[in-house]
Amino acid sequence: MGHATAPTAQVEASAMFALEHVTVTFGGLVALTDASLSVAPHSVHGVIGPNGAGKTTLFNVACGFVRPDEGRDALHGRHLPRLRPHDLPRLGIARTLQGSACSTG
Ligand SMILES: Nc1ncnc2c1ncn2[C@@H]1O[C@H](COP(=O)(O)OP(=O)(O)OP(=O)(O)O)[C@@H](O)[C@H]1O
Ligand SMILES: [Mg+2]
After folding, report:
1. What confidence score (pLDDT) does residue 48 get?
2. CATH entry, 17-91, from 3.40.30.10, 3.40.228.10, 3.40.50.300, 3.90.226.10
3. Rounded CA separation 26/46 (Å)
4. Whole-prediction pTM value?
């Protein structure tokens, strides 16, 4: 069973984008536990971890593809509790996928 805790970063109100205390479960499987990250303007971040650590799930929460059990997204210091995929363009968020065919990574 996968069980991952992403590195916890302090969420700052000035962050361009943030995830706060995100927990995701799929049935009995805990994919993310209290995962937080904060992205400052004009910065580039990478997310690394072993297979099944919850990286894609983290991005899916960031894009509204997966609704977290706990936690929420924030953009420019404002919470986005009901972020949905069709909200992304107007918020200036773009998502590319790992694979060009059937992969969900
Ligand atoms: N839709 C889903 N339904 C059930 N379990 C899922 C679902 N999506 C992910 N999982 C499970 O959640 C855990 C985290 O998966 P995730 O795909 O986020 O990991 P990952 O870090 O992206 O892995 P990889 O390096 O292989 O891409 C895994 O145990 C995975 O099997
Ligand atoms: Mg992945």
Report:
1. 95
2. 3.40.50.300
3. 24
4. 0.82
